[in-house]
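fyi for ur records
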Amino acid sequence: MKNFKYIFILGLALISINSFAQKERKYIRQGNKEFEKADYDNSEVSYRKAVDLEEKKTHEPEFNVGDALYKQEKYDDAAEQFKNLADYELSKEEKAKVYHNLGNSFLQSKKYQKSIEAFKNALRNNPTDLDTKYNLAYAQKKLEEQQQQQQQQDQDQNEDKQNQNQDKNKQDKQDQNKEQQQQQQPEISKEDAERILQALANDEKDTQQKVKEQQAAAAKVKVEKEW
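which gave:
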């Protein structure tokens, strides 16, 4: 699938310029200039000043605040801004624009399920918007990829856990066999040990006696020969 289209709808223009208060419009124009220069921090400040001076709730400066937040990559804040706007009584066209940008904000935060719902709401208000349709399809594909990746991670974790259990069982079995072998080794009683020691002592005594006898015999033979 092609890369996601970063199509962002700027400004609602709900009513004509003449209906805005002078200062409010001044800040909106200032914010627009800053926005065009990619000075999104200051454009947000200007738009917020316009919101504070807004006499009739047209919601254009509030919408533009959401745009500025989005451009600053403050996607969660932008989503909150558009979400609040969606609760107002707007025309179907305006609602579609708000939900479109809400969907984009969720999409950038990798909240694909929420993004899909927002794009669907946008299409309910403007079924012919091709950009929203494209972004909806893109979000659906990203959600599928995310779910597959999560499924693979879960499977890998389960396999690792099974391997660890097998290794543990193998080690436990080896330890058990070693313990059994040690237990199976014949034990000697105290009485048997004493008998064996006594027998060894007797053998040693007999051996020493034989050695003495042999030495005496050898000495006798030697004397007889010399004489």
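The chain has two domains: 17-147, 191-227. thats all i got for now
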